[in-house]
Each structure stands twice: as C-alpha cells, then as structure tokens.
Amino acid sequence: MSEDGFRATYGTGPEGVWAAPGRVNLIGEHTDYNDGFVMPFALPHATVAAVARRADGRLRLHTGSPDVPAGVVELHVDELEPGGGAGWADYPAGVIWALRDAGYEITGADVHFESTVPTGAGLSSSAALEVVTAVALNDLYGLGLERWRIARLCQRAENVYVGAPTGIMDQTASACCTEGHALWLDTRDLSQRQIPFDLASQGLRLLVVDTRVTHAHSEGEYGKRRAGCEQAAALLGVDALRDIPYEGLGDALARVEDPELRPLVRHVVTEDRRVERVVELLETGDARAIGPVLTEGHASLRDDFKVSCPELDLVVSAGVEAGALGARMTGGGFGGSAIVLVEESAAEKTAEAIVGAFATAGHREPRVFTAVPSAGARRLV
Ligand code: GAF
Known about the structure:
By secondary structure, the chain is α+β, with helices and mostly antiparallel strands. The protein folds into 2 domains: about 1-195 and about 375-380, Ribosomal Protein S5, domain 2; about 195-370, CATH 3.30.70.890. Helices cover about 40% and strands about 20% of the residues. The protein has helices at about 1-10, 90-100, 125-140, 145-160, 170-175, 220-235, 250-255, 260-285, 290-305, 310-320, 345-360, and strands at about 15-25, 35-40, 40-55, 60-65, 75, 110-115, 180-185, 190-195, 205-210, 325-330, 335-345, 365-370, 380. The strands form 3 sheets. A 6-stranded mixed β-sheet has the order 5-4-6-3-1-13, with helices on both faces. A 4-stranded antiparallel β-sheet has the order 10-11-9-12. A 3-stranded antiparallel β-sheet has the order 2-7-8, sandwiched between helices. A hairpin with a 5-residue loop joins strand 7 (about 180-185) and strand 8. Helix 2 packs across helix 3, helix 2 crosses helix 4 and helix 10 (about 310-320) crosses helix 11. The longest helix has 22 residues, at about 260-285. The protein is globular, with a radius of gyration of 21 Å. The N and C termini lie close together (about 10 Å). Bound molecules: ligand 1. Ligand 1 binds near residues 167, 169, 170 and 332. One of its GO terms (cellular component) is cytosol. Belongs to the GHMP kinase family. GalK subfamily. Pfam families: GalKase_gal_bdg (PF10509), GHMP_kinases_C (PF08544), GHMP_kinases_N (PF00288). Keywords: ATP-binding, Carbohydrate metabolism, Cytoplasm, Galactose metabolism, Kinase, Magnesium, Metal-binding, Nucleotide-binding, Transferase. Pathway: Carbohydrate metabolism; galactose metabolism.
C-alpha cells in the first residue's frame, strides 16, 4: 500500500493518495504533434502517489519501483532547472518546475510513488508519473486546474524539463480518460469526446503484447520524425500536416519532392482518416470492422513512418495469421507494445500463437494481457 510506503519512507502519514493510469492508443499514431487526431484509452495499470505538502521548499521523491535505485531523491523547488539530471525523478520534478514556471505557488512536497505501469513498454509510464504528481498538487494546493490544462503542463515538463519532444496524447489520456471509453481527442484545441468502447459485451477482446524491446523516444528517431513532419508542413504552406485534407493527399504528395518526407505526409494524413473511420465504426456498433483499419495503420507505421521493429511486426503478422481481426503497434514504436483485436473465443489461441512465433524467432518471451478501458487520474484517499 502506498500509504504504508509513505510512512516507512518519511515517518508520518500522507495527506492523500492519487492514481493516474498508463494508456493504450487504439488508433492515431504520430499524429499528436501534427495537430491531428488520437484515440487512446486508459489501462487499469496506474501510478499511485501518496503525497504531503511541505512549507520549506524541499522536495523529496521516493519510489517503490524495483527498477530504479533505492533511496529518496532530495531537491529544492527553487533550484529546479530544465535538464534535470535526476533520472526517473525528473518527471515529477519537471511537473513542479512547470507549475511554478506558470506562476503557481508550490512550496515543497514529500511523495512516495508505486506503479503497476510497465516501464519502457510504450504504455505511458512517464505520463502516469507526471499526471499523478500534477493532480495531487492541484488538489492539495487548491490550484483549480482543469484536466486539459494539467495535461498541457505535464507535456511542458516532459518537453522542456526532461527534454523529450513528445506530443500531448499520453498526458491527456492519463488525465482525461474514463472507464469503458476510448478518448477521441483533437490535439489542436484539445476538444474531446468519450467514445463507448466496451469490447467484452460484443464478444471481443483487445490483447496488449509487450515485446519487452525497450523503446527510448528521447534518443533521436522520434525527434527526427517530428522534425520531418514540421519540415513537410512548412513546404506545403500549412501550420501542421493535419491541415492537409485526405482528399488533397494526392496533390500534396506531388508537391513534396523529398523521398524521406513524402511517406511521412502520407502516414499522417491517412492516419487521421483512420481515426475518423474507427470512430464511425464504433459509433455504429461495428467494433469487429475496426480490425482491418488497425492492421492498415500498422503497415503505414512500418512502411511509411518507419517506427516499427521486427518484434512488433511479428506480433501483427502472427496475430493476424492466427485469426485476429486486426493488430498494430501502439505508442511511439521502436519497441514497446502492440495491440491485437480478437474474438473472445480465439484470445487464448492467438496469444499462444504469438508467444510461439517469438520463441521460434529466438526473441525474448513477450508479456500478453487483456486491455480493459479504465478510469483516468483520480484521488483514491
Ligand atoms: C509517444 C509520445 F509520447 C506521444 O505524444 C505520441 O506522439 C506517440 O508516441 C505516438 O503516437 O507515446
């Protein structure tokens, strides 16, 4: 229990306990930094924070995670500077920096974290860590911040303090998702709709397959894709690739001569269209029909955007061969996880086929679990 962990670390009890989940993205990949559309949902896996305010400016951060060195990270709120250097603690420290930089008075905190979100699996463990810190401080310091604003501040923490040029999807998913729904989000103005997403009642299941190939966005490739998209948008005379309508794709491609940039444009424009199609299908109650759209999205990420890897491709091919309705990588790529849409009755057989294909290929055994659309960030105690 995180309250016990807080007590064991700091010797007193916390003022409250908050949770923020990891996410899976159903469709809409690498569209968020192009002002486009995304459709994530929250996982039951969450980061929990037991928190108490301090008045002396000290910031003490501790995690029960076995993946990081033990010990309390001690910082001072006046000394937080972009660039961090405190490893995992940069994410919560960055949130406090972003809040203070935006003019909110935070006078210190003691925090103990515990998490069930797998790290490095492309399931937004970083966003969960940021958002749980922000919602806790928002409540304790009475800041009155709306959820979309919390997401923006957390994104700023990640972009500026941590130095990873990510979009707004993961923080918004963690802050705004609701149980039983996928979140349709327009990343330009953060307008959103909760789309009912209850696969179980339709005899379906969505498997998450964590390839256990660790991805690392800040290490260059993600930033290169983002820069390429921005360059293409500038060439085409639009603010962002979202402004190229699907019907105008042919014309746009004819105007982009650079063979590196052309496929980036094609991916983003077709992916925005796939988000629209998935929303339409879910709203007409035809969840089975989203399968091929997911698989098409994977091909686009693999061939045009070039952010897949052999293990992610194998999840998709082995899953589809075993009879899955559709499959795709989810998240930033270069490792991490894939999702596989299956008939409930075929779930076990499909998971076994994927694990078997990994063994045959000599890859590390993947972790497979069922994704249940769950609640966004909330106060627990
Ligand atoms: C990562 C980023 F953090 C998101 O902002 C998004 O760009 C995603 O990759 C790709 O869709 O999760």
